[in-house]
Specification:
The complex is a heterodimer of chains A (509) and B (146). Chain A is built from 21 helices and 2 strands. Chain A is mainly alpha-helical and 509 residues long. With 146 residues, chain B is mainly alpha-helical. Chain B has helices at 5-27, 36-54, 56-62, 65-88, 104-135. The radius of gyration of chain B is 19 Å and the shape is elongated. Classes of the chains: A mainly alpha (509), B mainly alpha (146). Chains A and B meet through helix 1 of A and helix 4 and helix 5 of B.
């Protein structure tokens, strides 16, 4: 039976898609096996940095519209598992890697203060698994593989959130709530994939897309779509499915919140886009109607309701969590427009909001380290004792509102443009109006930090250590930098949007 | 369970057989039903049975918790490492054909054996770790009071 096979050796560059996940994924068990507390952080940081370089190389390769396909185990798709990288996922990969690489130096100090020493090795292992899982979700072109990586990242996320229990026991119930909701979400998602498999007989996304295009819409495909949207919706925290998010973000360790807020929901949004545009294709009218009549109203509702709740919070971290739900609304609104501009706005806001929230949550982490709490009442006057941290928080806050000159402005501007392009000027007005709500909740932070007399812990607090300030300021500087230089963000978003709308993921015939 | 003489004797007789059967399922997995997952669970059963009958402390003497945790990680590394080897040989990740370039089928055979071994090691570790986690909790009623 032995057959002679000629094989051309693959070069290092060909392996980039798999190395992207492999580096953090191998680093995770390695951390446990070495079992050294001193080495856990360096291993995590180095693997995260290597992953960031790989993600950058992938984005540079795919910016021109090229699609990289990697066959796992040498088995050709649709039978084998395929990793498929185009501009859309390369952009998400770079976001996840960059955030992780910047958050990790911050995490070192923050984790040392918030989590007992004996847990550190396992903490970084869970972190690396979560990181690898998120990258895997973004890189794979196989629907079932998405589910597997989603579970890898979710399970480790529950562990990471529960680590907050050393500071506040409520982290345990928050993690349990998320576990329940996340599992229901994953179940719905896998039911959806099961139905798709039933209808098409394949698990490769591009192949599913081709077969759906052939057979057209039928009840199985429509139910699959509904299950997938609800399942991923739970992970994205689309407005009525967001209940797990505020508690998880509030009670998780500061570094975990900074990482998750900037990456986990963003990767889930990417999956939603991938399924809506690449698997079901934009000409699948059921998907379009779902977006227009269900997702868009909920997105607008989120923009207002969540912002409104955020105004009345007395905890800085919790306020930011609600603001995240509102910002996810903007991203979904952009996707719901189903136009090139709308999608560009959605994808660029995904990036800009990621860096903004990472900056803000790191700022909270630094404040928590020095004052011991994230409640406004305990932070009064911290602007005077911790000037650098507070200034970075203000920059993040401005970007959250969307003040011109910050990253947040760029994507909201494109979003308003997209609304006007469609002639939906009331929606454009709503975007501006909801941004005014952001002004109120950000103002409350500025008032607390600068205008209140310093009391209690905040009065005696000292500036955060350099290991926290440097990552925090890199993020804050990024918020301003991407407010002026839009070539990378808007450029990559446009290429990604084009690719998604063209259904470019279809198999090369 | 000091008074359960029959259970203790039978367990002592069975543990070895169970481990042997686990290894059979492990390495015969590519010809008959079985493989790493099943073998791992059967292997873990040997330790769990020993723990149930002879107390947690005695099974942890044989199989200490730190070793269990290392095994969980080691299995994953064996799996991932097999893929990395094929990567270094110039083939795609997890392309076992790399091990015997002229007869890919043989390479695939060896690759599966090694990968399944990794799965078996991790599953054994995970099952025993779960048992330790549950059994390690302080019991509400002590064993003697039953």
């Amino acid at each position: 039976m032995a057959s002679e096979v000629t094989h051309t050796a693959a070069t290092f560059a060909d392996h980039l898609p798999v190395l992207q996940i492999l580096v953090p994924f191998i680093a995770a068990p390695l951390t446990v096996l070495i079992g050294s507390r001193a080495l856990a952080w360096p291993i995590a940081f180095v693997s995260s940095a290597i992953a960031a370089v790989i993600a950058f190389a992938l984005l540079m390769k795919t910016m021109g519209g090229e699609v990289i396909s990697y066959h796992l185990g040498g088995w050709a798709p649709p039978l084998g598992i395929e990793y498929r990288v185009d501009a859309a996922n390369a952009f998400v990969l770079l976001l996840v890697c960059a955030i992780s690489t910047i958050v990790l130096p911050f995490a070192r100090t923050s984790v040392a203060a918030e989590i007992p020493k004996r847990q550190h090795t396992l903490f970084y292992t869970a972190y690396l698994l979560c990181f690898a899982g998120l990258l895997g979700v973004a890189v794979t072109g196989d629907a079932f593989n998405v589910f597997v990586f989603l579970e890898i990242s979710s399970l480790s996320t529950y562990v990471l959130i529960a680590q907050g229990s050393y500071r506040d026991k409520r982290a345990l119930t928050a993690a349990f709530d998320y576990l329940m909701m996340g599992t229901i979400g994953a179940t719905f998602f896998v039911i959806g994939i099961g139905l798709l498999y039933m209808a098409t007989g394949t698990l490769n996304m591009a192949d599913i897309a081709d077969r759906i295009a052939e057979q057209g819409s039928n009840r199985t495909v429509r139910s699959a779509f509904a299950f997938i949207v609800v399942g991923i919706g739970l992970k994205v925290a689309i407005y009525p499915l967001h209940l797990w998010l505020p508690n998880s973000y509030t009670f998780a360790p500061s570094a975990v919140t900074a990482f998750l807020a900037a990456t986990a929901t963003k990767v889930a949004i990417y999956v939603l886009m991938r399924f809506v545009f690449s698997v079901f294709r934009p000409d699948f009218s059921f998907a379009n109607n779902t977006l227009e009549f269900i997702i868009i109203p909920f997105a607008i509702l989120a923009m207002f309701a969540a912002s409104f709740i955020a105004i009345f919070q007395s905890d800085f971290k919790r306020m930011l969590a609600y603001s995240s739900i509102a910002q996810i609304g903007y991203i979904l609104l952009g996707i719901g427009f189903l136009t090139q501009t709308g999608l560009t706005a959605g994808i660029s806001h995904l990036f800009n909001h990621g860096i903004t929230k990472a900056a803000l949550f790191m700022g909270v982490g630094a404040l928590v380290l020095r004052t011991g709490s994230s409640f406004y009442s305990r932070l009064e006057g911290a602007g005077r004792t911790m000037p650098w941290t507070s200034a970075a928080v203000v920059i993040g806050g401005l970007s959250l509102i969307g003040v011109p000159g910050t990253a947040g402005f760029i994507s909201k501007w494109v979003l308003v443009q997209a609304a006007l392009e469609k002639g939906w000027w009331p929606v454009a007005l709503l975007i501006v109006a909801s941004s005014l709500l952001a002004v109120i909740y950000v103002w409350r932070v500025i008032e607390t930090l600068y205008l209140k007399p310093a009391t209690g812990d905040a009065a005696t607090a000292t500036e955060a250590p350099a290991s926290m300030l440097i990552p925090l300021w890199i993020m804050a500087a990024a918020c301003i930098y991407f407010g002026f230089d839009t070539q990378i963000t808007i450029g990559a978003s446009q290429t990604a949007a084009q690719g998604l709308l063209a259904g470019a993921v279809g198999m090369a015939h | 369970m000091h008074h359960h003489l029959i259970l203790r004797v039978v367990t002592k007789l069975l543990v070895g057989t169970i481990i042997l059967y686990a290894l059979y399922v492990q390495f015969h997995g590519d010809y008959s039903p079985g493989g790493g997952f099943q073998a791992g669970v059967i292997m873990a059963v040997a330790f769990i049975l020993y723990g149930v009958v002879f107390s947690l402390a005695s099974v942890q003497q044989v199989f200490p918790p730190w070793l269990v945790h290392k095994l969980v990680a080691l299995g994953v590394l064996i799996y991932a490492g097999t893929g990395v080897v094929s990567l270094f040989l110039g083939y795609n990740y997890l392309d076992y054909g790399a091990f015997t370039p002229h007869h890919p089928e043989h390479g695939q055979h060896y690759g599966i054996l090694v990968v399944e071994l990794g799965v078996g090691v991790t599953v054994t570790g995970v099952m025993v770790a779960i048992y330790y986690a549950f059994a390690g909790r302080t019991p509400v009623i002590s064993d003697e009071e039953w």
